Amino acid sequence: MNFFKTLTFFLTLILYDVQIHGQTLGVTMNHFSASNGYTLFSQLGDTSTFLIDNCGNIVHNWEVNSRPGNSEYLLEDGSLLRCGKDEGNTDFVKGGYGGLIEKLDWEGNYLWEYQYSNDSLRQHHDIAPLPNGNVLVLAWEKKDSANAVNSGRDPNILIDNELWPEHIVEIEPIYPNGGTIVWEWHIWDHLVQDFDNTKSNYGVINEHPERMNINAHAGNGGKDWLHGNSIDYNESLDQIMISLRTLNEIIIIDHSTTTEEAKESIGGNSNKGGDILYRWGNPENYDSGTLQDQKLFGQHDAHWIKTGLSEEGKIQIFNNNNPGDFSSIVVINPPISGFNYNLVGGNSFLPDNYFWEYKSTPDTTFFSGRISGSQMLPNNNTLICEGNSGHFFEINQNKEIVWEYVTPINAGVPLEQDASTSLNNSVFRCVKYSINYSAFNGKDLSAGYPIELNPSNDWCNEQLSVIEKSATQSLKIYPNPAKHFLNVSTKRKIKKITIASILGKKIKESTSLNSTDFSINLEGISIGPYVCIVTLIDGEKLALPFLKAD
Questions:
Q1: 270 torsion bin: left (phi>0), alpha (psi -120 to 50), beta (else)
Q2: Which of 56, 85, 253, 432 could form a disulfide with 69 if both were Cys (CB 3.0 to 4.6 A apart)?
Q3: Burial letters for 363-397: b for 16+ Cβ neighbours within 10 Å, e otherwise?
């Protein structure tokens, strides 16, 4: 069996649940099969945005003027597009509030600042960059009690005497601090109600799945009535998707309309104007199902899987609050015909269930009741941000964890390595960018230090992320499998030999050898697969896998 086949064989063996000794923060696992890239994130109480490698080393960071409000994106030109909190606006203060949209270059210089925040509206949670350089903004707008009641809202569930329905604007930046709204859509233009036939929007709810029932609500029916928490754009369909947390539902609308058409029910690629094209997660919202039909529970980060990935076009969602207090990642495959989605029986949307689902074993060990997100990666792994605990992890196609990171920042303050993980270290979501992403062209991505103080990630920095040359460099290890000793031989002098688990944990090391042959004692090492990493005098590293036998 040649080297590459042997390596593949060992690296596809069952992954052992290894916790690095003393490692409670930063990277706690880095398997060879983790996607090779850089992860972008901000801790919600901090004014720094970090880009880290797979060993948790900072390769770049931005210092910004405001706390996250909440999402951020690394654009193809290397600039950072982010939401910031407008702390001066006290009229709209709910979870996820923002109000500022900012763009910084790679060096951290502000290119553009735009405030979408006043006493009648406010950006919150998320934005979406568009291919033309414009930005889609998810925002609240204020409707007083008279407006709400006249639109058919039941006064008994208008406990805050106002509503904050969602709207979306597309902003064309005017650098350095201006912008023009070139398109907009308001859910307020697409309502239905069966409460009061003397008020507007009156109709039969299940005959109008394309409209939002103004009396659909969760809990106490507060003013943050829908609580949108993510927005995503599909260029090939020219459609927008938003997640409505309190209604346990995602909706899709047409972006190809004019602003005037977006107020109506005709126009655009769908010829349905600004009506809801598709909705999924809780058909009770439009009287087309029961509690048993509900599939989403306080979800976040609903997005189309990107073009070029194996499941492109499907929709991936972080399902936060499944009954029984556990979270899951779900993928659905909506049936679409042209630019429209077919209704079953005239009034409900498919699919009946998930295309794919990830949950932990036992399921309650994976839970984040708020924020959070997920991302399918080019190697078909999935990156998951368990946001409430600042915990990121990557799973492979067998749903095994291959990379893990715990955010080492407590309310903006870096922590020492062995600090407790009961922290104020929440992260809205994280995004991993491939090492080949265009934003990195010509950039210095030299690994710096980890964020945590007193770091202990040498085990990770020492391992090889890519093992290519060993089979052709006259490195020999024998016997294989090995019981008591592993003999190592090469034509050039050896400086150091490291035995590591296939998850990257350093098990044993011999240094200052200055020899071409060495025998390393394997006593005390458990049965299983390992990698022998040889560091030569000139600094080059070679590696081969082996089995420790009984």
A1: alpha
A2: 85
A3: eeebbbebbbbbbbbebebbbbbbbbbbbbbbbbe
Token readout for 94 is: 């709910």
Which contacts of 470-476 are long-range, i.e. CB under 8 A and separated by 24 or more positions?
470/3, 470/542, 470/543, 470/544, 471/2, 471/3, 471/4, 471/544, 473/542, 475/534, 475/542, 475/543, 475/544
**522 within some domain:** no
pLDDT in tens, 311-364: 999 999 999 999 999 999 999 999 999 999 988 876 789 999 999 999 999 999
Residue 472 confidence (pLDDT): 46
Provide the 10 A C-beta neighbour count for residue 414.
Answer: 16
The total of structural domains in the chain comes to 1
Q: Specify whether the CB–CB gap between 2 and 8 falls below 8 A.
A: no
Q: Please check whether residue 545 lies inside any domain of the structure.
A: no
User: Is residue 327 in a domain?
Assistant: yes
User: Cα–Cα distance between 318 and 313 in angstroms, integer?
Assistant: 16
Nearest-CA neighbor of 284 among 248, 253, 318? 248
The domain that contains 69 carries what CATH number?
2.120.10.30
Which residue bears the tokens 């590696």? Answer: 543
Q: Which residue has the tokens 């600039």?
A: 79
Residue 538 lies in a domain: no
The answer to whether 488 and 534 have CB atoms below 8 angstroms apart is yes
**pLDDT one-digit tens code per residue, 71-108:** 999 999 999 999 999 999 998 889 999 999 999 999 99
Asked whether the bond before 479 is cis by omega within 30 degrees of 0, the reply is yes
**What domain range includes position 337?**
23-455
Q: Give me the phi and psi of 80, to 5 degrees please.
A: -105, 120
